[in-house]
Write a structure and sequence with these properties.
single chain; about 325 residues; mainly alpha; Rossmann fold; Tyrosyl-Transfer RNA Synthetase; three-stranded parallel sheet; two-stranded parallel sheet; elongated; binds tryptophan; binds iron/sulfur cluster
């Protein structure tokens, strides 16, 4: 087991997860969890960097864990936990903060974007600027090699690599430079063809029942050239077709749809019905699994996960404290 390289990833708390999360990162987690020694955690501290209201934090954390387990993250294989339950993340973040130049943090594109949106009354806080330092600590505290993330996280990971390099050169080589692992599948857009996001109200949630899924798929915009049933269309510009591909419709059916669309052999309603059938195969097992996962069970998983996570985190902190001469 210790032969395997370490993989780690976290998600900020956002509540119920949608299929964009699934195809963006979760699918990768599930596929890779046996290949590496895997750690997956709920980044609840990162969730505090841009809001003060924590009233839904508990509920959202549990819902996210439920979705993770329902899609196939196996707590017997991967270590699944909550960031704030493993205090070593904070200890390392404090130490890494001492060697991180402010310039790196001010230059970070995600920080700059956030600052633009922040009103005077919210004000830019220290935690937001330090977001990449905490993220680096999440990764380095397990001396992880691989970090499956979405493209939006690449700038953070670049900072993580620089901090690891800097620590290694100052105090001795203990951290691997973590590498991003991106998903191969193309990005799944929202129902309205914009980025899938809760704030656009264009999501299909993993927990949506089939009636809800249907009510979201049927009105989806298709190729605007297909005004009448007899007008041919172009699947390559149609969001419904990209859903067929994401849900791994077999080649033969993809070909049928492609041809049916380009020669007006099938209508968009038929096409969507074929998609819904395929989506049902995906959703039913997830829904069944979700029903078996009680809040208590989820808490137990997170508790056991944090105990396991702490073993490796402690090992790292012992090394770090020795290297930095903090133990007398
Ligand atoms: N910043 C990540 C996101 O918004 C979440 C995260 C926190 C993370 N710590 C991490 C991801 C460590 C990978 C590794 O999605
Ligand atoms: Fe899109 Fe299918 Fe309609 Fe073609 S037939 S435009 S792929 S929904």
């Amino acid at each position: 087991m210790s032969e395997k390289k370490v993989m780690l990833s976290g998600n900020r708390v956002s509540g119920r997860l949608h299929i964009g999360h699934y195809f963006g990162v979760l699918k990768n987690y599930v596929e890779l969890q046996t290949k590496y020694q895997s750690y997956f955690f709920i980044a609840n501290w990162h969730g505090l960097t841009d809001r003060h209201d924590t009233s839904s934090m508990k509920e959202h954390s549990i819902e996210m864990l439920r979705d993770w387990l329902a899609v196939g993250i196996d707590p017997e294989i991967a270590t699944v936990f909550v960031q704030s339950h493993v205090k070593e993340h904070a200890e390392l973040a404090l130490l890494l903060g001492m060697i991180t130049p402010l310039g790196w943090l001010y230059r970070c594109p995600t920080f700059k974007d956030k600052v633009k949106d922040i009103t005077e009354k919210d004000s830019v806080n220290f935690g937001l600027l330090g977001y990449p330092v905490l993220m680096t600590s999440d990764i380095l505290v397990y001396r992880a090699h691989y970090v499956p993330v979405g493209e939006d996280q690449l700038a953070h990971l670049e900072i993580s690599r620089e901090i690891a390099r800097r620590f290694n050169s100052f105090y001795g080589n203990i951290f691997p430079e973590p590498e991003a692992v991106l998903t191969k599948t193309s990005k799944l857009m929202g129902l309205d063809n914009r980025k899938m996001s809760k704030s656009y109200d264009n999501c299909i949630y993993l927990s949506d029942d089939m009636d809800t899924v249907k009510s979201k798929i049927m009105p989806m915009v298709t190729d605007p050239a297909r005004i009448k049933r007899t007008d041919p269309g172009n699947p390559e510009i149609c969001n419904v077709y990209s859903y067929h591909k994401a849900f791994e419709q077999p080649e033969s059916i993809l070909k049928e749809i492609f041809e049916g669309c380009t020669n007006a052999g099938i209508g968009c309603v038929d096409c969507k019905k074929i998609l819904l059938k395929k989506m049902e195969e995906f959703f039913i097992p997830i829904h069944e699994k979700r029903k078996t996962l009680s809040d208590d069970y989820i808490r137990q998983v997170a508790e056991a996960g944090s105990v396991k996570a702490r073993i490796r985190a402690d090992e790292t902190m012992r090394l770090v404290n020795e290297k930095m001469n903090l133990i007398i």
